[in-house]
Design brief:
Layout: E1 18-19, E2 21-23, E3 26-28, E4 35-39, E5 46-51, H1 55-82
Length: 83
């Protein structure tokens, strides 16, 4: 079976124009506003852009992870107890 290329008519896959970072349960633009091209290995063509994360983005992700750790810890403990 031959499939239509992503983002073309008849395709079952549609990519967004660009993808941000997923931090703290939300899509967040990179702090410095930079993106890089994502190319397909099939044709070498660019099919979307992805956030070029910097140290500042990593710090935001770490802050979100630290803020969520208590809730996750309780959830995991409860899951183990129920097992």
């Amino acid at each position: 079976m031959i499939y239509a290329n992503p983002n073309t008519e008849g395709s079952v896959i549609q990519f967004k124009e660009k993808y941000d970072n997923f931090i703290g349960g939300k899509w967040v633009a990179p702090v410095k506003g930079e993106y890089f091209d994502v190319t397909t290995p099939v044709t070498g063509e660019i099919f979307t852009k992805a956030a070029r994360s910097s140290v500042e983005d990593i710090e935001l992700a770490l802050d979100a992870a630290h803020a969520a750790k208590d809730a996750w810890g309780k959830h995991l403990q409860q899951s183990v107890l129920e097992f």
